[in-house]
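Hi W., the pyridoxal-5'-phosphate complex you wanted:
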Amino acid sequence: MTQHREKREGRRAAGWSTRAVHAGEARQKPTSAVAEPLVFSSTYSFGSTQDVIDYIQQNQERAEYARYGTPGEQAVERKLADLENGEDAVLYSSGMAAIVGLLMTVLNQGDEVVFFDECYHRSREFCSRHLSRFGVTTRQVPACDYEAMAAAITPRTRLLISESPTNPHLSVVDLERFVAVGREHRVATLIDATLATPYNVRPLDYGVDYVLHSATKYFGGHNDLLAGVLIGSREKLEPVRQLRGIMGAVANPHGTYLLQRGLKTFELRMERQNANGLALARFLESHPRIERVYYPGLESHPYHDVARRTMAGFGGLVTFLVRDADWRETAAIVDRVRIPRIAPSLGGVESLIEQPLVMSYFECTAEQRRQYGIPDNMIRYACGIENSEDLVEDLRQALEA
Ligand SMILES: *Cc1c(COP(=O)(O)O)cnc(C)c1O
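Structure:
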C-alpha cells in the first residue's frame, strides 16, 4: 500500500538498509561524528532566563530534562517511525512499558478493551489483573475470530488489541478485517508487531492506529538491551508522549545507543532470520519425531494464505510439537541442542530455545495451559543469525539422539 502512495507521489522509497542506516539522523552532527554520539546528561542547560522563557513560550524543539526526551532518543524514534511508515514513534524502557503507557493514556474508568487471546502472557496479565483494578473491563476472544471480536464490542469499548503473528502459535491477523471491525465500530486498533517487524509487515499501511514493538527483540537484535516503542500518527501519540514524561518509563542512553547501532543491520539480520525460520520449519515438518509445526511460511499453517498476502517474510520464530512426548521427553530435546541457549526472548543474533510449559507457564494449572493452548510437548525456537545448515544439523542430532 505504501508502494501505491509512493508511486502516486512519484518517488521510490529507499531500500531497507539505506533507511535503517540513515533515517532519522542528521547528516552533519554537532560533533561531526559519523556515529550518533551518546548523550548521558540527565538535564540540559539554558544560556539565560530568557532562553528558558523562549523555550516554554515558543515550544522550541530541544532537550530540557531527560525524562521528557533526549537527542539520541529522538534520532532513534525518527528512524523507527521511518521504518514503520509512521509519522512519530515514542520510545520506552521496555515493550511492556510501551503497552502499559498506551493503555494508561487511552483508557478511563468504565472503558473496555477487546483482545485476541493468543498473546504475550504479561500483556494479558496487565489487562486482566491490573486494568481491572481501575474499573477497566477486558474481554478475550479467540485469536483471528473477527465476528467474536465485533460481538464483544460495546459502546464502552475503546481499543482492539492483537499481536501478529501471535506468540507462540504464530497465528497471523488479517489486518484488513481487523481494521474493518475497528472502523465499523469506531474503536481504535493496536497491533503488537514484535514478531513480524516492519521488514515483514507494516500494520499502519492497513490503517491500524497504533503499532507496538518490543525493541528488545528484532530491532535491538543482539540480546543486549530492553526497549519498547509505539508508532503511529503524531496526533495520536502526543498524549502518549505526555504521559510517558510523567510515568517515566524512558529508555536509558546506553540502551538507546545500542538500539540505534543494532538497527543499522536490521535488513541483514531479518533476511537471515526469515531464511533460518523457514529452513528450520521445513526441516521439522519433514521429521518423523515432529507432530506439528507452527510457522506461517508453511502451507500447512492455518494462516498461510493471510501470511502470504500480507507478509514479506515469516520471521525467525518456529514453534513445534514433539510426537508422543511428555514434558520430560520434550525437555530432553531442549537440553540436547548445542547451538541455541535455553532462554526466553527472540530476535537476537543468538538462537534461543525454550519449552513454553516450563519457561512461561510452569505455575499455571493444566486447565489454564489447555485454555492458552500450551501443550506439554511444545518447543519454541527463536532463530538467530547462525548458518541454517548448522541450526538444522544441531536440531537433528537433538531429535535423533
Ligand atoms: C517480549 C515481548 C513483549 C514485552 O517486551 P519487553 O521488551 O520484554 O518488555 C511484548 N510483546 C511481545 C510479542 C513480546 O515478544
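The pocket of pyridoxal-5'-phosphate is lined by residues 94-96, 120, 123, 163, 167, 192, 194-195, 214, 216-217, 226, 228 (CB under 6 Å).

W.
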